[in-house]
Amino acid sequence: MEMSLESFQAICDYHCRGGTTSLLLTTVTAEIKRIISVLARVREYRSQIPLIAGAHVEGPFISPQKVGAQNPEFICEPTPGLTDQLLAYADVIKRVTIAPEINGALPLIKRFASAGINVSGGHSDAWDEEARAAFECGMRSTTHTFNCMSSARRRGVYRVAGLLEFALGETKLNCELIADGHHVSPTLMKMAYHAKGPAGISLVTDAVAGAGLPNGTPFEVGGKKCVVKNGVGLLADESALAGSVASMLDLVRTMVRHVGIPLADAVTMASRNPARQIGLSKKGEIAIGNDADLVVFSPEFEVKQTLVAGEQIYPG
To answer: Domains (ranges, CATH) in the chain?
Structure first.
């Protein structure tokens, strides 16, 4: 949200060292005019920083009941006017997070999906039928699955699924997963792997401004004071998670060593799957004609080289 060339470069340099070749700069819940300003800067600077593939707009169309570390002050319902402002940057926005149950969500999902933008359900308290309605309108993924997301609960005397169970059971829906070892336990990650298979999960760092900083370092997310502690981002009062401080290779390591899945599957979740979700058809897979975006890492999961379009970016 600092929206300077220097801040974007700092983000990309950190993730490049951690095994990322392309990423989406992600906005937080804020005033629409500020989000628009970030999108304008992404459009301006992406030609100068090869790692920038676009933007992910995470909020403000989310549920106050599942706000997480986002700032509830700026949560709002979508209107045609707000949607028009965002769709003016449809060339920049590759992914948008929306809570399916909020007023106006379904026509909003249809418009974003029709513009070729990946619509993801998240920060949501949706019931099963609300999640299904969003899917039928074009929602095709979930944001940081298990976190800030409704799950099975009673409605009257009946047990009803939430967004989590809908996502795990719907084969055409991709589940984004923060596999940093803090946001989701190994048992839950293993359950997701068996439910979705290696093609149904996309690993995401969900890294915030504390990434790369020492334990005890303060930082902010959308105006909220946070701190790095024990390898994760927390709200300053330590009452809730506030995003991760992980790199992509950290996630691959966790999936292999702590969840016990094959390395090839973990790499697919970190490369091909997320690339396809946001329409990057020439990334995430080694094949003739594709972008030569490559990461070389050791058996100890240490990044040795990161190449983007055939050029060695790290070590630089």
So the answer is: 5-207+246-314 (3.20.20.140), 212-245 (no CATH)
